[in-house]
Amino acid sequence: MPAADTATLLIHCPDRPGLVHDVTGFISSHQGNIIDLQQHIDPAENAFFMRLEWNLEKFTLEKEEIFARLQPMARRHEMQVRLHFASQRKRVALFVTKENHCLYDLLARHEAGELPVDIPLIVANHETLKPAAERFGIPFYHFPITKDNKAAQEAAQIELLKKERIDTVVLARYMQIISPAMIEAFPNQILNIHHSFLPAFVGAKPYHQAHVRGVKIIGATSHYVTADLDEGPIIHQDVMCVSHEDSVQDLVRLGRDLEKTVLAKALWWHVRDQVLVYQNKTVVFD
Amino acid sequence: MPAADTATLLIHCPDRPGLVHDVTGFISSHQGNIIDLQQHIDPAENAFFMRLEWNLEKFTLEKEEIFARLQPMARRHEMQVRLHFASQRKRVALFVTKENHCLYDLLARHEAGELPVDIPLIVANHETLKPAAERFGIPFYHFPITKDNKAAQEAAQIELLKKERIDTVVLARYMQIISPAMIEAFPNQILNIHHSFLPAFVGAKPYHQAHVRGVKIIGATSHYVTADLDEGPIIHQDVMCVSHEDSVQDLVRLGRDLEKTVLAKALWWHVRDQVLVYQNKTVVFD
Amino acid sequence: MPAADTATLLIHCPDRPGLVHDVTGFISSHQGNIIDLQQHIDPAENAFFMRLEWNLEKFTLEKEEIFARLQPMARRHEMQVRLHFASQRKRVALFVTKENHCLYDLLARHEAGELPVDIPLIVANHETLKPAAERFGIPFYHFPITKDNKAAQEAAQIELLKKERIDTVVLARYMQIISPAMIEAFPNQILNIHHSFLPAFVGAKPYHQAHVRGVKIIGATSHYVTADLDEGPIIHQDVMCVSHEDSVQDLVRLGRDLEKTVLAKALWWHVRDQVLVYQNKTVVFD
Amino acid sequence: MPAADTATLLIHCPDRPGLVHDVTGFISSHQGNIIDLQQHIDPAENAFFMRLEWNLEKFTLEKEEIFARLQPMARRHEMQVRLHFASQRKRVALFVTKENHCLYDLLARHEAGELPVDIPLIVANHETLKPAAERFGIPFYHFPITKDNKAAQEAAQIELLKKERIDTVVLARYMQIISPAMIEAFPNQILNIHHSFLPAFVGAKPYHQAHVRGVKIIGATSHYVTADLDEGPIIHQDVMCVSHEDSVQDLVRLGRDLEKTVLAKALWWHVRDQVLVYQNKTVVFD
Predict the structure, then answer these.
(1) Which of B147, B215, C217, D63 is deepest in the core (most CB within 10 A)?
(2) Which pLDDT score is estimated for D286?
(3) What is the distance in angstroms between the Cα of D257 and the nearest Cα belonging to chain B?
(4) Which pLDDT value is given to residue C1?
(5) Which phi-psi region, left, alpha or beta, contains residue A165 (left: φ > 0; alpha: ψ -120 to 50)?
């Protein structure tokens, strides 16, 4: 017996009395049963945030008409509204370079049925991980990138992604800076994993930087990619303890475990529509 | 300028459509503005849980009449309802024996204004910490306990607590088993800190047990006291890594840091009415 | 340029003055340069533990004669001595059932060159993961197990392991109890991953047990397998926070991340000869 | 029965064969029994680090002559040597401003016998915590600081510290920048607690910075004070998870628990002579 389909609303707007009552009234009046509701107010910004998930089994509106029917309320409260359905699995492209740990981790989760997404393709700027893609039967696209061809290659990548109706791009240790054209094409839909506890050690070789500074904890950060390198909204971070005994190579090795779990968790929240971006920060409804 | 008073509702009932809409309708209809709403459903139990906090500034009902006015809705939905006001600070009694760390930690938080409670008294079965109580100007009551006088002393303790209108009893490393009479007098209002990661190492000398077993992590657990020793609903737990180099004495020393922060956090949630007990488990709205 | 070969000594014996001086004298007198030395004393047991790793580049003894030449000193101090060479990669057999996460995690680490071992074979009691083994080109042996054939199948497994000169058996979510014959054949060489924070939730379905108890933290434990189920020496443990919102299925999903990293870390220490077993506990030299 | 006195050597020098054998030979030849020996090599720097603690009970040298007798070996190997005795308790001055949490935490540990130090005095630039000092019977010195009097007040502080034979200065949330004169007077003996995970959020108001950036984890860092603000050698760090729901005030409140435990742990290692500074980093022998 498959789980019944659900719909998820992500809302933010100026705070005012009666918002929850209004939105839940919309659901109730069409026989929807709320499964999960989380609401958050930022008093300093007078901002209201809500995630609401409801069961569509007995819902009296067709999926196609829900968004339109929400508009009067949305206009009344100046709401920004996103609507998702659990049955519409996100289509995710994985971008990789040479390191295999994030790639295998995501593919293994996908194979085990843990990640409710489709992965139609893997994009890489090196051929190193082509055998990994082939093992899992996922088309592998090689876009070697040089200074000269970078703009053209990215344009080709965007075309490919659009053709494959990709929703979400995951930079699974993709060692290239993403250019503005792609960022604009996928706003808040490109997830990166940075191998430091941001904002410490922005930029290149963060484990080397960490070793020089002598920190006792290293971290990894998953964030949405924006035009400012390593400055996008942070979705998830995690850390582990290290010591003076750990060389740079040890930090690199240990950090891989952080990178793969942090990226996977951020992606989990993203594909379940639990993340709302606001003022370069995230509200993660968990 | 003092913060405006707020009211908090804690509700649980069988799940059915429209619950959130009904409750928020009650608030809206009396001009309350919701500050925080968290709702949780346990599908396996078909149980609905909600915490709702609203601003009383423009609320059109008097505090005294709110609970009565909620009753028709509560009966309709078979709701169990708790109502609290931020302005009614809980009155907390601290129970101690000889160890000072939890006591000083709570008193320092209280003095810094971090804990929104009154602490009218400290109860102890030894006189060791009397100077600590005196330093902070809090009345100290010494109830030496033997096998013979235990029932009588506990009766006297209950009488004292009732006379001082105590809401919450905190066993801050109180090395006595609480008898059923007191548990019944303060249901889900007695917080204990157990010095292990429950349910591992129930009972006496958990650090010794941990050392014998050779665990690599130790923990502390704060729970409500019930008739079953160390079996009450868990409010909070935390852990730290240890190694073969740590003796039992090291575990005792290191564990104190866990004990005091875990107990303080559990108390923080308790006094802010963020904890709901259900089937010997807690729902912590955080 | 390959790293020079190193030798590692693991010693335990009754504590007495001069032990470190004696052992380091042996190394110095043959022109060995110590890379790492860790020593630990358990005063309660008057027990001495040491791990010493040295560079063999200029060492004046042949590898084959080192162990024999150590014997006089070992006898003098009643030492238990283990000697390993980094160049002798351990041969590891992975035992699996149906879940893929630990298997893929170890295979990906191996492919990336992170784990300095050979993996000559995978043993399974179901065929589910045969494709995974095939993708990585590792021979897969299927031993279906029933009550009736269990003893015979285990005997066949032991024979296979001996034939393939296996040093280390990793139960990577292998859902069968290992019988005494195999445990005796591989003393302190069989690593298991148990999906709880032992000694909490010994036995079957630990996540269900954890959910019923309402713990706020779940864990995973890697230990050597002994005749007492889930009672062997603990090598590594880790935990993560959970909440009332997590169903049993959530705990299972979240726990997989613990299981794979805890098992991989325990195996890392094991294959680098950093683990010494003593009185059903481990000394982990890290 | 008091524990026997022990001596601790902290050594660093260029790495070469035979160092451990030489040093342990010195101990053995005078009938010392080694309790703890940890040794670390940084291959990239060819640097050798060692901490060695031995029992003085049967040692045949007087304490006063040990250091001189070590010199020939120290010169031979270009060793930097520190020698400490457990019986010579460090004398610690606590510097505070207005916040009480680190102060009470350290005083409670001291009263419980956990911290093997003397605390002859508390220095403050405000009078807020004078009652706290008085409660614990510790002399409180008030040095109000303005731009104009800062140099003179620090000179007076140094004089006071010298007069009281202070070894270690602990900045327990002391909200003043320490000037070079004091840093030179107490090299690697002034511990600070910075309320961020350094090097993120250097300087003022780190919790505000963290809130603006939207990090999901906050931290605290204890380090030795050097001439570069927040750039000194890191001794210890710890972190905790936060979320979008946490206001700046929540971060401040939550962070206090990190600050007090991180500072206390760093001080614990410092007073037990477990910390060695090298190239603006620490080797912590734990």
Answers:
(1) B215
(2) 86
(3) 7
(4) 39
(5) left
Nearest to A84 by CA among A72, A109, A66: A66
Q: Do C282 and B244 touch (CB under 8 A)?
A: yes
The residue type found at D209 is Q
Mean per-residue pLDDT, A169-197: 96
Exposed/middle/buried for D118, CB within 10 Å: 0-12, 13-18, 19+?
Answer: middle
C-alpha D88/C-alpha D91 separation (Å) is: 9
How is residue D79 written in tokens?
A: 């060793």
Of B198, B200, B243, nearest to C284 by CB-CB distance is B243
Mean pLDDT, residues D277-286: 95
Tens digit of each residue's pLDDT (9 = 90 or more) over B140-166? 999 999 999 999 999 999 999 999 999
pLDDT at D176 over 60: yes
- Report yes or no: D182 at the A interface, CB cutoff 8 Å: no
The answer as to CATH 3.40.190.10 being correct for domain C6-85 is no
Tell me the CATH class for A142-284.
alpha beta
Q: Quickly count: other Cβ atoms within 10 Å of residue A31's Cβ.
A: 16
What CATH class does B92-284 carry?
Answer: alpha beta
The secondary element (H helix, E strand) that includes residue C164 is: none
- Report the complex ipTM: 0.95
Which A residues, 233 through 272, put their C-beta within 8 Å of a C-beta on chain C? 245, 253, 256-257, 261, 264
Q: Please answer whether residues B218 and B196 qualify as being in contact, where contact means their C-beta atoms are separated by less than 8 angstroms.
A: yes
- pLDDT-flagged residues of chain C (< 70): 1-3
> In the predicted model, is pLDDT for residue B121 greater than 60?
yes
Q: How far is CA C169 from CA C10, C84, C272, in A?
A: 20, 18, 15
C185-198 pLDDT per residue, tens: 999 999 999 999 99
Q: Is the minimum CB–CB distance between D98 and chain A shorter than 8 Å?
A: no
Distinct helix (H) and strand (E) counts, chain A = 8, 13
Which of D73, D61, D95 shows the shortest CA–CA distance to D20?
D73
Cβ neighbours, 10 Å, residue A278:
16
Q: Does C25 touch chain D (CB under 8 A)?
A: yes
Q: Tell the burial category of A228 from Cβ atoms under 10 Å away from its Cβ (0-12, 13-18, 19+).
A: exposed
Task: Assess A9–C contact: CB distance below 8 Å, yes or no.
Answer: no
B41:A24 CB<8 A: no
pLDDT in tens, B66-118: 999 999 999 999 999 999 999 999 999 999 999 999 999 999 999 999 999 99
Q: Do D33 and C40 touch (CB under 8 A)?
A: no
Query: Which residues 33-52 in chain C show a CB within 8 A of chain B?
Result: 40, 42-44, 49
Please name the residue that has the structure tokens 């006591």. B103
Separation CA B187–CA B184 (nearest Å): 5
**Helix/strand/coil (H, E, C) string of A205-222?**
CHHHHHHHHCCCEEEEEE
Q: Tell me: the pLDDT tens digits for B193-251? A: 999 999 999 989 999 999 999 999 999 999 999 999 899 999 999 999 999 999 999 99
For residues C123 and C181, give the distance between their C-alpha atoms in angstroms, rounded to a whole number. Answer: 17
Assess C197–B contact: CB distance below 8 Å, yes or no: yes
CB contact under 8 Å between D233 and A214, yes or no, is yes
pLDDT in tens, A40-59: 899 889 999 999 999 999 99
Q: Domain segments of chain C: what residues? A: 6-85, 90-284
Give the pLDDT band (50/70/90) at residue B4. confident
Q: Of C230, C238, C250, C286, which residue is the catalytic one?
A: C230
Question: Residue D108: which of B100, B112, B245 has the nearest Cβ?
Answer: B100
Cα distance between residue C282 and residue C280, in whole Å: 7
Q: What is the pLDDT of residue B3?
A: 60
Q: Is the peptide bond between D180 and the residue preceding it cis, with omega within 30 degrees of 0?
A: no
> Which CATH class, in words, describes the domain spanning C90-284?
alpha beta
Give, rounded to a whole angstrom, the gap between the first and last alpha carbons of chain D. 26
Tallying the residues shown for chain A, one arrives at: 286
